[in-house]
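pinging the channel bc i need a second pair of eyes. not urgent but kinda urgent?? the chain im working w is below, pasted from the shared doc
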Amino acid sequence: MSTSPDSMSPAERYRASAERTAESKTHLGAFARTLDFELDDFQRHACRSLQDGRGVLVAAPTGAGKTIVGEFAIYLALQRGLKAFYTTPIKALSNQKYTELADKYGADNVGLLTGDTSINGEAPVVVMTTEVLRNMLYADSAALDDLGFVVMDEVHYLADRFRGAVWEEVIIHLPSEVQVASLSATVSNAEEFGAWLDTVRGDTDVIVSEHRPVPLYQHVMVGREIVDLFAGETTFDEIAPAGNPATVSAVPAAPSPDDAGRRGFEVNPELLRLSRQESQLNFQGRFGHGGRSQRRQQRQRNGDRPQQEIRTAVRRASRPQVIASLDRQDLLPAITFIFSRAGCDAAVTQCVSAGLWLTSEKEQRIIAQRVDEAGQDIPSDDLEVLGFWNWRDGLLRGIAAHHAGMLPTFKEVVEKLFADGLVKAVFATETLALGINMPARCVVLEKLDKFNGEAHVDITAGEYTQLTGRAGRRGIDVEGHAVVLWQPGTDPAAVAGLASRRTYPLNSSFRPTYNMSINLLAQFGRARAREILESSFAQFQADRSVVGLAKQVRSREESLAGYAKSMTCHLGDFTEYARLRRELSDAENFTSRTKSRARKSLNEDSLSRLLPGDVVDVPAGRAPGYAVVLSSDHSSREPRPAVLTVENQLRRIGIDDLEGPISPLTRIRIPKSFNAKVPKSRRDLASSVRNALRENRPPAPGNPRNTDFGLGAGSPNQEKKIAELRRALRAHPCHGCSEREDHARWSERWWKLRKETDGLVRQIQGRTNTIAKTFDRVCDVLSAYGYLESPEPGQHRISADGQRLRRIYGEKDLLISQALRQGAFDDLDAVEVAALASVLVYQAKREDRGLRPRMPSVSLETAVDIVVREWSALEDVEEQNKLPLTGEPELGLVWPIYKWARGRHLQEVLSGTDLAAGDFVRWVKQVIDLLDQLAQIPGLEPRLARLCSEAIKIVRRGVVAYSTVI
């Protein structure tokens, strides 16, 4: 923080004045004069570093203004006659940044390059996705000439497990004279990341700011009432972790409910009281003796296990009521995060149906004009299927959704209207938090958990910070507000823990890919390529962790030496005696576990064989005694047949009720009219059981009772080994030592610590040169497929197929190359080429995967067969080499792309699929990106290159073509 002028000495005031005067004559001074606000200290510090020729890592909260540093890098480049590239993780952010910079510096000076859009790519300032810059570096593009600055916005995206490696590739491969300005959300290991940047890029200053220009207050909405999360006026800055955030441990820790309390910030007692009341209500509901509770317990015993119902005294507000409450308290515009596309669309529909209007007549006229302008170029046939009229109706009311399933054009309209204050309520998925400039006065979180594709998981402290960071518009709002909706089971202390832990670690997701490896080999050779990969942030982090592990190993080795001395025996080698004891213990435990597993298996098998009408004697459990089986359960895991006891109780029996395999004592016939819900039916059947037992009817034929548990004496070899170990133990000199058990205790400690130490050593071995070892395995696969040739031992040469692989970028790079190599594209026309390309880029959701569809043509069926066969063979090779497996080819987009390429209407294309229009457009753009890559491969067969270009033309039409227009 800067020092107040009033508190400065005369000498300090003179020095500060001199610094200001000197700075006013620099590029930074000139840049500052173009702004209509004063630079913050962290912005000024970062800009000075850039001006002095150093790189910077700026880590600051969302909305703090770190992009100013990136804009100064662009200003410097233009002033010095150099180029500047501004990279972003997503196309939407690239489009937004391009518009901002074009407005500021003129369209002639700014370009845009994304996978499917190219505008003025030779301009001195070019905005691009990070993948485009990576591809330029590998292609040694002429566009890199005179490049002076690269701004890497949202650089913390390198932790993304799918695309994060691209950021590291760019940072490593950029020419050394290029200055890099890395802009990041607040991360807890900024110093570690900065140290790596300093290693690979040269002088790099790390500037961390925890200060939010607009104070952020935390709330919980209980019903329709907004309640403060903390007692008293507590802002974002005040709940900062103690100490320098840049030096906080990089180990991710779950937010503790006590975090806020330990830092001296009291959770609102009103919320804690409500939470206790809810807990008591649910405790009574679970353990009460009412009929409803008993019926619920009975359903659970019968295997019908509904999701646990959490009772609450709070009547939850509907979505329209939430927005209305925010409107009454002057907290709009607001973004409500709902972790579901369908939920976002439903929220808009609910607000419209509730008659909610948030706009004036004047605002409605402006919105209508802009929306109609946006839709005028969209084919009229497509407007209905795109939901244009419902979308327009919501916007006129000031309400909209924002998610990846929307048409990009629609999303851009929503963003602009929201930024201009015309849309007041946006329901969005978390993708909106990825850097898109859409600040609001208030952010609402419906839930604190989300579905990650596999399971429902709690959001992390970092995700909470990223989402709530949108609240508070600099220069507009005096304060921002984050609101969590009260849900049954909400723990206010846990919410406070999330709010008080705002930093999260930046961990590398880097690993060598086939394309990356072949490009490194082509440019640098094998030895130098290994060195480059070992300079990655992933290896940097692994090496740092090895230092700590090695220190632990040294400490444990010292302790082991002390333990070994304490277990020394004067009669003989106690280490050998301890080894015999351990071998005997392991052998006995193994035999015991084998018998236990066999007993459990036999018990499960006996339960699964029971049939309706079997009368059994249940030896244990809640209701031991005689019972008749009502229904079988042939489940492979823990069968639980339903029975009726002689005391007229309905229940299920499982392996916990048995002491050994169960077999029928006798059998009875269950009448077809039997109804377990009727007491008289139960009494009559129980009477029949008692009669059968009195009459001593014989057991069911062919199913005799098993009484030996099938265990016998165990494995003869195992029993022999145990006997030999016991004899050796008794014959050992140390067996007669009077201090034997004392030595044995030290021995146990030694063995336990030795095991832990060996585990740490294995971790060190696994982390040492991990990236280079993976690279070696990738090279082995490339050699096996003929992409690398070895004219002499130790030498590698890129084959013609390898040169082609260098220009194929994507998660299925090697599979795409193999498809080309095996002639999958040879007999296809342009439409079929587009359809086959979709197989190589599309990724279906797990629940959308089904049976293989019939292909539109015989030639396409043959091509898909080739791709699937190559994928299967590649997967086997990757498993053998312990590499991540290439994703399975997905056929779910073949028919939609095929129809679209044939010129069908959008409604017909999407009919019968679960694809949203926005998703379809996004996947078509990825198909175009792949086709463009293939068309530009040097040496590609001319006919195929022509077909790829033709395929691009026939799919880039209608909403796809329109959505690429800026």
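so Residues 1-5, 241-264, 285-309, 702-713 have pLDDT under 50 and may be disordered. and The first helix runs from residue 10 to 24. — does that match what u expected or am i reading it wrong
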